Amino acid sequence: MRPRCAGDDDSDRAGDGQLGIATKTKAKPKKPSQYKVLMLNDDYTPMEFVVMVLKRFFRMDLEQATRVMLHVHQRGVGVCGIFPYEVAETKVNQVMDFARQNQHPLQCTLEKA
């Protein structure tokens, strides 16, 4: 038995003499939900304009933009890219505004990926 000194706390003697290390579990930040930006076909917007939009707003090269444009033309809808919600929403708005400014009825929308 060890001698007791003033200021000793009984709780120290109740343990096994080992110090514990408190650890904090960090919650991993969730990845933001991803959204597909979809382009819809119409009978009026020129194919060249669609290719220009894909290059300008989605940074596609000519070959990829042409491939996506033909997919949209043949199937009625195509994916321009997958982005976090805010980015997808911005791209949809940019495309729609640009199409309106150029008097084209091109439509873009987004849906959860």
Automatic annotation (TrEMBL):
GO molecular function: peptidase activity
Pfam families tied to this protein: ClpS
Disordered: region residues: 1-27
Presence of keyword Transmembrane: no
Gene3D superfamilies: 3.30.1390.10
Any one of the GO BP annotations: protein catabolic process
Ranges where the Adaptor protein ClpS core domain occurs: 30-109
Keywords attached to this entry: Hydrolase, Protease
Summary of the function given for this chain in its UniProt record: Involved in the modulation of the specificity of the ClpAP-mediated ATP-dependent protein degradation.
HAMAP family in the record: ClpS
Family: Belongs to the ClpS family.
Subunit structure, as described in the record: Binds to the N-terminal domain of the chaperone ClpA.
Protein's UniProt name: ATP-dependent Clp protease adapter protein ClpS
Organism: Pelagerythrobacter rhizovicinus
Taxonomic lineage from the root: Bacteria, Pseudomonadati, Pseudomonadota, Alphaproteobacteria, Sphingomonadales
